Amino acid sequence: MRIAVDASGGDYAPYEIVKGAIKAAQSLKDKGVEIILIGKRPVLHVQAGKHLKKLNLSIVHAPQNIEFHEHPVEALKNKPKSSIVIGTMMVKEGTADAFVSAGSTGAMLCAAYLLLGKIEGIERPALGSIIKLTPHAPALLLDAGANADCRPQHLVEFARLGNIYSKYVIGVDKPRVALMSNGEEETKGNKLVIETHQMLKTVPGLNFIGNMEGHDLVHNKADVIVTDGFTGNVLIKAFEGLGDSIIKIRQVGQAVNSASHLRGRALLADVGMGHMVKGMDFREVGGACLLGVKGTIIVSHGRSRAKAMMNAILMAKRTVEQRIPQLIAEEVKENVSSVTV
Amino acid sequence: MRIAVDASGGDYAPYEIVKGAIKAAQSLKDKGVEIILIGKRPVLHVQAGKHLKKLNLSIVHAPQNIEFHEHPVEALKNKPKSSIVIGTMMVKEGTADAFVSAGSTGAMLCAAYLLLGKIEGIERPALGSIIKLTPHAPALLLDAGANADCRPQHLVEFARLGNIYSKYVIGVDKPRVALMSNGEEETKGNKLVIETHQMLKTVPGLNFIGNMEGHDLVHNKADVIVTDGFTGNVLIKAFEGLGDSIIKIRQVGQAVNSASHLRGRALLADVGMGHMVKGMDFREVGGACLLGVKGTIIVSHGRSRAKAMMNAILMAKRTVEQRIPQLIAEEVKENVSSVTV
C-alpha cells in the first residue's frame, strides 16, 4: 500500500507534516505501507533523508504549493506541479492508494472532483468527520463542509455514504443513522430536513432512527449523523473551538500551578472527561475522509501537527484496506433507484 | 412592574417553577416587582400560600395546561384558560409587563404571534439566547429556533434585533455583530449567508464585523451572533448537551470521589473552566427572549428548575426595565427603508 502525504500543505508544513509521516512510518514498519512525502525535495531531504533507508518512506518532488488564500480552480490550473495536484494525480494513476493533505480544503475538494472525478451515481461527495463525544463511541458526521447548500437527495446520499464508512472503517455492525434537526419529531426541521426525513424512511438497508438534536451528540444516539455541509461545518468547528479552549485552559493551569494541573488531569481522566476533550480535539481524529470520489482522499485540519498527521495517515490506511471507494461504487450500482430518488 | 410566570409549564412544574418564583421574589423584595404565578390556584396555594403576604407574590388561576406534544395553534384555540394563553393575554392587556414560561416553545411562539402580534415592520421575531463561553463576555445568539427557514432579510432583521438587545440589556456599547458561517471570507457560506453578508454591510448603525466560524464562539469575537433558527437551535442544544455532560461528569466524580471532586472543582475554577461550564448551562442563563413581538416574552428551557426560573425572571425584569419592545418599534420606524430591503 502507498499513502501519499502533502508535505507542503498546512500551517505547520513541512516540519510537523514530515514529523507525523515519520511517526506513521515507524508505527507501520514492516506492514507493507509506503509513505510518500510530496513537496520540495531538498527541504524534505534535510529532515527525512536519514529515515529514507530505514523506513518505508520516499520523497516525490513538488516545486509548487497552493496557498490557502488562492482560488481553488485557478490554483489547480496555474500550479500543475503543486503537491495537491501531484498527490491527487498519483491516486488517479494508481501510483498511490490514498492522498492525505492539510492544505487548502477548497483546492483538495476541487482536485478530487476535477482530477479523480465522482463515483458514478454519486452527485455530491461529502466530507465525513469522526467525532468522539462519548467514550468508546466514535460517530461519523457528514457533510462536514463540502456542500454548503444541499437538496434532500444529497442528504440521502450522505446517509448512504456514511453508512458504508461507519460499517467498514469504524466497524459498526448496523450503523444507526440520524438526521440532525431542531426537534425529534419528523415534522420538525427546516424544509430540507423535513423532506429528507421522509426520503430516508424509504431507503432500503439503512437503519434510519429519525431526527436527532444538538444535545444528542453527547448521548451516543447515532453512529452516522447526517446534516448539510453548512450546519455540519459550523458544528464541527464549534466543538473544535471548545476542545481547544479546554486544552488551553489545562495548559494555563499547568503553567500557573503544575501540581493542581496534574491533580486536575488525573481528575478529568478519573471522571471520564478525557474522552470528551479528545473527542473535541482534531489532533486525535486526524482528518475527514472525502466520500464519493474515485479514490481515498483525507482532508486534514490546516492546523495539523505531527500527531494529527500521523492519525490522518493511519485513517487513510484503514480506508484503503476497506476499499471504501469500491464499496461505494458497488452499493450505488445495487441501489441506483433509491439514489436517484 | 409585574412579571407573570407560567407555573404549569415545564418538566418540573409546578414545584420547581414556584420555588424559582419565590427565590426571585425574595431577591427582588422591596424593588417594586410583583411576581404573578399562573396555574392551578389550589396547587399553587399549597406551596406559595405562606409567602403571598410576605413577598410581592400573587396567584392567577389557570385551570388548563398546554402539553408539549399538543399542536400549538389548536392547543391555543382549545385551551383559552391555559396558563400560556392567560399569561400572554395579561401582557397584551397590560396587567403584566412580561411573561415567563418553560412550557411548549411552539405554543409560546404562536401565542406571542397571534395574541400579542408582531411589532410593525418586523417580519420574523427571533429567539435571542445568551451564551457565555468566554469569561465576562456573554454573547447573544439569534435566531435560537423560532425560524427554521429564513431569507436574507430575516437574518438582517435578527441582526438589528440583537443589536438593540445587546446594547440595552447586556450593556454592550457598540455590539460587534457577526454572521455565523462556514468560512471567514465574505464569499464563504451557503446562499442564505452569502446574500445576507452583502446586505448586512449596508445596514446603517450596525457594527457588522463579518462572518464568524464555529470555533470563534469561544474566542469572544462577537457580541451578537446572527444565524438562521435551524443552525442556531442545533448549536445552542449542542452546547447545552456538552454542558450537561460536563456537569454530570463532575457529579459522578463527586459520587465516586468527593475529595478529588472538590480538588477538581477548585481546579476548574482556578484555570477558568467554570465559566465555560456555566456558559453551556441553560440553568445559568434562564431563558431566551422573543424579540420583535409587542411585549416581553421569555421562553425558558423545558427542563428548567428553580434556579433557571429565577434567572429567567430576573432577565425578564431587565428586559422590561429597558423597554426593549418600545426601542425595537422606534428603531424600526427610523430605519423602515433598510428593514424592508
UniProtKB/TrEMBL annotation, chains A, B:
Keywords: Acyltransferase, Cytoplasm, Lipid biosynthesis, Lipid metabolism, Phospholipid biosynthesis, Phospholipid metabolism, Transferase. It is found in: Cytoplasm. Its EC number is 2.3.1.274. The keyword Cytoplasm applies. Signal peptide: none annotated. Pathway: Lipid metabolism; phospholipid metabolism. It catalyses: a fatty acyl-[ACP] + phosphate = an acyl phosphate + holo-[ACP]. GO terms for biological process: fatty acid biosynthetic process; phospholipid biosynthetic process. Its main location: cytoplasm. GO terms for molecular function: phosphate:acyl-[acyl carrier protein] acyltransferase activity. It is an enzyme of class 2 (transferase). GO terms for cellular component: cytoplasm. Catalyzes the reversible formation of acyl-phosphate (acyl-PO(4)) from acyl-[acyl-carrier-protein] (acyl-ACP). This enzyme utilizes acyl-ACP as fatty acyl donor, but not acyl-CoA. Belongs to the PlsX family. Homodimer. Probably interacts with PlsY. NCBIfam families: plsX. This is Phosphate acyltransferase. It comes from Dehalogenimonas formicexedens. The gene is plsX.
